[in-house]
Specification:
Elements: E1 6-8, H1 11-21, H2 25-30, E2 33-35, H3 38-46, H4 54-59
Parallel strand pairs: 1-2
């Protein structure tokens, strides 16, 4: 398990984790820091047609 590691994450894995678990908390437990590039933030906030994952992304204030 990657203890005290940092990760840069893209939209696809964020959405997959939300689909699988309903939230992003697993990332907080696995990594010391999770970096989300600005472009990924824009994609996540846009939410696509259905707005999937927007609420979960916005409530993960530790990202």
């Amino acid at each position: 398990m990657p203890e005290n590691k940092e990760i840069v994450i893209n939209t696809g894995p964020l959405l997959a984790l939300i689909a699988a678990t309903g939230n992003l908390e697993l990332l907080q437990h696995l990594y010391k820091a999770v970096w989300v590039p600005y472009e990924v933030v824009l994609e996540m906030e846009a939410g696509g047609n259905a707005g999937f994952g927007v609420k979960q992304f916005e409530t993960a204030t530790w990202l």
